Amino acid sequence: MSVSRTYLDYNATAPLRPGAREAMLRALDSFGNPSSVHAEGRRARSVIECARAEIAGLVGAQARDVAFTSGATESANWVLSAPWRKILVSAVEHPAVTAPATRAGAQTMTIPVDANGLIDVELFANLLRNDIGDDPEQGDVLVAVQFANNETGVVQPIAEIAGFVHEHGAQLLVDAVQAAGRIEIDMATLGVDYLMISSHKIGGPQGVGALVFGTAESNNLKPLIVGGGQERNKRAGTENVPALAGFGAAAVAAKDDLLRVGESALLRDELEARLKAATPGLTIFAKNAPRLCNTTLVALPGASAETTVIGLDLNGVAASAGSACSSGKTARSPVLAAMDVSADMAKCAVRFSLGWATNEKDIAACEGAWQRVMKTRGGERQVA
Ligand code: PLP
Fold first, then answer.
1. Binding site membership of 325 for ligand 1 (Cβ less than 6 Å)
2. Are 156 and 119 in contact (CB under 8 A)?
3. Which CATH homologous superfamily contains domain 6-15+260-382?
4. Which listed residue, 18, 301, 330, 334, has the most CB atoms within 10 A of its CB?
5. CB 202: neighbour CB atoms within 10 A?
6. How confident is residue 332, by pLDDT bands cut at 50, 70 and 90?
């Protein structure tokens, strides 16, 4: 008997959208090498350039400023491999940013966050003033701040932060992996130098992403991967044409999703209300901070996230204990640590993330599974 599944782990990866699947299948027949001048090559090239324009459209950029990569992790490694003198990284960044920042060999500093995981912009401005001074010519300082957090969904005030960063002559790298398709992103007005996005978080295939350049200065970034002259000498290697076709189609659909952000937030709020009604001791992290429409991170004190997530899975619901990339490790989530959440509480944090196929039935199924898991837990406690 097949158990019907409820997938609420879009922040880990989103299911492939039907439009992306169709575009990929079509592109499998455009088998030419996109660098070849013959008709087959030109056909493959046009698939790529169409995808580039679609992705630029999602983030308000010019197509020529979009460079394809193998994913956001490569995009971050690319930017952070430049010879920066100083790198300032927010305390809630994803390991895709923190690991290459640590390895870079530059002087690094952490930008603190408050109990909601939000950067205090005044404090940040002081940090810039005191630590990097006011020399707008220096250009060798990088600031990395994510648009929205993968665990809590908390959204940072990027435009304001970009203003301060540029006042001090630094450049800004923004991880928009979780924000793309869930909040309006307009590179033309934001003042971001480098923006990283990932296909599989918006319903495209895995293993493909982009780095988007927002300024003339950032456009001069030296390549990380050298070889052929692909991506206008920015990133060598024959392009993955079917994957890019899927990424492009997903970007178009993700842009449409922006019209339905309110519906997604209602579903998320309903899920939170139902879980809270079922287990009144539930904590909802950063509930009153600006958050993505699709994400909720909750914790019931004493209910280990690991056990809860396994229980939910056995009851047909896919969710995550903290971020997917750090699950499997028992260490406290650095994001919750930065928010000053106790280790005991952090161990209980379960993330539900909704997406393009989520509906009312999923919310009801999740509530049912939650109730069953928590009831079993109660029973175990009584037995013990
Ligand atoms: N940044 C954030 C916020 C993420 O959630 C992830 C993936 O989990 C990444 C970066 C890495 O993206 P990719 O899987 O495309 O390398």
1. yes
2. yes
3. Aspartate Aminotransferase, domain 1 (3.90.1150.10)
4. 334
5. 28
6. confident
Decide: 193 and 218 in contact? Cβ < 8 Å: yes
Best mutation site among 150, 198, 327, 333 for ligand 1 pocket (most ligand atoms within 8 Å of CB): 198
CA distance 270 to 103: 42
For the chain, where do the domains classified as CATH 3.90.1150.10 start and end? 6-15+260-382
Tokens of 117: 């995981």
Boundaries of CATH 3.40.640.10 in the chain?
A: 18-256
18-256 CATH pick, 3.40.630.30, 1.20.120.1810, 3.40.640.10, 3.90.950.10: 3.40.640.10
What share of the chain has pLDDT > 90, as a percent?
A: 88
Residue 150 Cβ inside 6 Å of ligand 1? The answer reads yes
State mean pLDDT over 204-219: 95
Q: How far is the CA of 378 from the centre of ligand 1 (A)?
A: 36
- Is the distance from the beta carbon of residue 182 to the nearest atom of ligand 1 less than 6 Å? no
Is the model's pTM score more than 0.85? yes
96 touches ligand 1 (CB under 6 Å) = yes
Note the pLDDT tens digit of each residue in 48-94.
999 999 999 999 999 999 999 999 999 999 999 999 999 999 999 99
Cite the active site residues.
325
Signed CA dihedral, 380, 381, 383, 384: sign only: positive
Q: Is the Cβ atom of 175 under 6 angstroms away from ligand 1?
A: yes
349 Cα: distance to centroid of ligand 1 (angstroms): 19
Whole-angstrom distance, CA of residue 278 vs CA of residue 350: 15
pLDDT in tens, 280-299: 999 999 999 999 999 999 99
Q: What average pLDDT score do residues 302-327 get?
A: 86
Atom of ligand 1 nearest to the CA of 76: 10
355 and 11 Cβ atoms separated by less than 8 Å: no
Say if ligand 1 is within 6 A of residue 71 CB: yes
Cα 223 to averaged position of ligand 1 atoms, centre (Å): 20
Give the residue whose CA is nearest to atom 12 of ligand 1. 72
